[in-house]
């Protein structure tokens, strides 16, 4: 309000000052609704605050993994080669029990071999694992990424979302270990984090990106003709890992109808559970 001091004594100048900033509109002049008038300023302040939070988070992470921060109880190690990263990724994929959270960005390089098409037996531990993966939209144009996405779905289902851009690659397994690049948007070296305090920060970062991302709509063009247009819409949401409540909202239907249609799709696929339906649909219908 510093620039208002020189015009407060002149009503006409005061009116022009207010009009120029969108607080007053029309002839004769009338006050604009505050939430509309102040919306640009609020948006700018929010954007600035978000950038500041991201900067603080980045600086804090870099400080904690640097030589200035040493604590034997909170280990952080570096993986300097693709072979090391691949070995760790494979080990985590084989031992995950509860939660798998991943942000996939460019540049993309495959860390796991594609699942064999004939494989039908899924490890019981993977069926109980909650997998959530967010892909950058541009990365999803890579055939290798789509192959990996379907690979992930075949391993017992997953919740898949996409977004325009992610801040960095990230993998968190069972809330106990995290893997992320030392340099954001980079690939190597990767940091292997097993420090609870640092992992909590990475979990918060994943959850923030997950909430902003959009559920992925699978290509169900190969689905059998027995599934009508509404069935296909629901199947897309099921494959994306959405709940019946969310599906009902997106498809403008009732939860009872959604449940009945999913049960019919399970019967058509010859499976008894939702996870098995995702596995079957990904293998035969997508």
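^ Assign residues to that structure.
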């Amino acid at each position: 309000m510093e620039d208002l001091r020189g015009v407060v004594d002149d009503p006409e100048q005061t009116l022009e000052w207010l009009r120029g900033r969108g607080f007053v509109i029309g002839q004769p002049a009338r006050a604009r609704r505050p939430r509309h008038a102040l919306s640009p300023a609020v948006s700018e302040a929010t954007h600035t605050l978000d950038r500041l939070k991201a900067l603080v988070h980045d600086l804090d992470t870099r400080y904690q993994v640097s030589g200035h921060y040493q604590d034997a109880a909170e280990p952080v190690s570096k993986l300097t080669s693709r072979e090391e990263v691949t070995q760790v990724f494979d080990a985590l994929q084989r031992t995950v029990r509860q939660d798998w959270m991943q942000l996939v960005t460019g540049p993309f390089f495959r860390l796991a071999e594609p699942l064999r098409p004939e494989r039908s037996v899924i490890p019981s531990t993977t069926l109980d694992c909650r997998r959530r993966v967010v892909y950058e939209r541009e990365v999803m144009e890579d055939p290798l990424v789509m192959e990996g996405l379907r690979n992930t779905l075949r391993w017992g289902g997953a919740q898949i979302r996409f977004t325009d851009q992610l801040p960095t690659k990230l993998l968190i397994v069972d809330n106990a270990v995290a893997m992320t690049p030392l340099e954001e948007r980079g690939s190597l070296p990767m940091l292997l984090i097993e420090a609870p305090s640092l992992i909590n920060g990475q979990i918060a970062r994943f959850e923030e990106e997950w909430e902003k991302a959009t559920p992925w709509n699978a290509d169900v063009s190969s689905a059998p003709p027995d599934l009508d247009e509404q069935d296909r819409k629901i199947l897309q949401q099921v494959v994306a890992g959405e709940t019946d409540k969310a599906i009902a909202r997106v498809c403008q239907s009732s939860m009872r109808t959604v449940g009945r249609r999913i049960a019919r799709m399970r019967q058509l696929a010859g499976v008894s559970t939702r996870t098995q339906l995702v596995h079957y649909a990904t293998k035969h219908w997508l």
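Residues 68-73, 114-125 have pLDDT under 50 and may be disordered.
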